[in-house]
Design goal:
It contains four helices and no strands. It is mainly alpha-helical.
């Protein structure tokens, strides 16, 4: 199902990333060695790993805000450009005059 809201993909990506950070935090807390053996978390203390995850989550949130703003700005620009093309073509007749 496709959505008409251009912000949905950026928000969904942030939501999935946020869930991944939550899963990672729980994995670190429970010390699932088989799940973290090929990651940068092996050999770190849970406190260090959680601090790293928290920093990454903050960065992801900041980037999500930037992506949402840029997407919204692009939508507004495209909408205004389309409206300008209509006005330049004389549509609607009374408004363009």
């Amino acid at each position: 199902m496709t959505s008409l809201n251009p912000l949905d993909p950026a928000y969904k990506a942030f939501s999935v990333a946020s869930d991944c950070f939550t899963v990672t935090t729980h994995t670190i807390e429970r010390q699932h060695k088989e799940l973290i053996r090929r990651t940068q978390f092996i050999g770190t203390t849970p406190a260090e790993a959680n601090a790293t995850v928290a920093d990454a989550a903050k960065q992801a949130a900041d980037l999500a805000i930037l992506a949402l703003f840029a997407t919204f700005e692009r939508f507004v620009i495209e909408h205004l450009q389309a409206a300008n093309r209509l006005l330049a073509a004389g549509y609607p007749q009374r408004y363009s005059s």
